[in-house]
Amino acid sequence: MEKPSRKLKKTLLILGVTGAVYISFKYLLPLVIPFLIAYVFALSLRPSALWVEQKCRFTIKKRTITLPLAVIGGVEIIILMIVLGILLYVGGRKLCMEAQLLLENLPGILARLDQWLMGHCSWAEGILKLPDGYMVDIVREMISKGETAIKDGAMPFLMVNTMTMVKWIIRVTVFTVILFIATVLSLQEMDDIRVRRDNSMFCYEYAMLGNRLMTVGNAWLKTQGTIMMCTMIVCSVGLFLMGNPYFILMGIAIGILDALPIFGTGTILIPWAIFSLVSHNWVRGIGLIAIFIICYFLREIMEAKIMGGKVGLTPLETLVSMYTGLQLFGLLGFILGPIGLLIIEDIVELYGGSCYNNGKEMGH
């Protein structure tokens, strides 16, 4: 039977580490996250920057001159931003065209929806033995009140949130500038940062935490990014083959919705398929169900294949940690929860073993 002192030490260690991880994620992480992201960007750019530096070396009067890594990294970041901007422009232009087409066709879509609702309301009135037009009047009144509420609330909402949007744009701009500068400086000081880390008395803890963050973050981002892109492609191609004029817009919307916690492709595809089947549009309904099945198995297979055993948590531990992270940190908690649990387990195992050994020695 374990001594009460050892149990107490282990309990206090778990509580202390859990509290420290929570405080770090809640208050410290928002302050340093731009620099952590910048360091990760610098690590990813470093191989290509070193290759360019080696290729651009030249000698003048027996003196070797090289381009600074910070300059090379800055140019690479600017090139990546230009490429990303072009892609966003082309994609955004296509999305705007589809959105404009949707707005032009919206009255016809609403008219068909109204006709469909009225037809089913009349059918329901016959089944429920209600007076003719009873349910039709109720539905029309609900639609009319909904339109009025949207019109009355749209302008106040825009007025209230205009300053919020301006502040958000300013914060994003400042964040981007800081991220760019921090990435360039991290590239320039990478060797010094590593030397200071290796000479630190906490070098083992730094290495352990860094490995955990890199492993879980890389596995999660790679999995979700790959699944989201594949889902967008599958949905866009499927809707294109079905003749949907908004195939890119809908494909992107379904892919983003699938990446969000709790939601999934079924949030849009299943009601849409049911609506199509009830409307006797069998081809569209079956096609939407087929797209949903493909996306579902695609997510299951790719999550198992890419994530594999990299994270090191059981499915139940992952679910519990994600739910706890959601409650504590919001949507970001879906990744902070598993990372926090792994860090707690590692630190408790590291120092708990030390406490256990000391306890044995003291006992003897």
Please provide a written account of the structure.
With 364 residues, this protein is an all-alpha fold. It has ten helices and two strands, in the order αββααααααααα. It has a two-stranded antiparallel ribbon with strand order 1-2. α1 crosses α2, α1 (4-55) crosses α3 and α1 crosses α10. It starts with a helix and ends with a helix.
Fraction of residues in helix: over 70%
Q: How many DSSP helices?
A: 10
- Number of extended strands: 2
Strand order of the largest sheet: 1-2
Task: Bin the strand percentage.
Answer: under 5%
Low-confidence stretches: 354-364
What Rg do the Cα atoms give? 28 Å
| Net shape | extended
Order of helices and strands: HEEHHHHHHHHH
On the 0 to 100 scale, the average pLDDT is 76
Cα separation of the termini: 15 Å
User: Would you tell me the structural class of the helices and strands?
Assistant: mainly alpha
Q: Strand count, sense and closure of the main sheet?
A: 2 strands, antiparallel
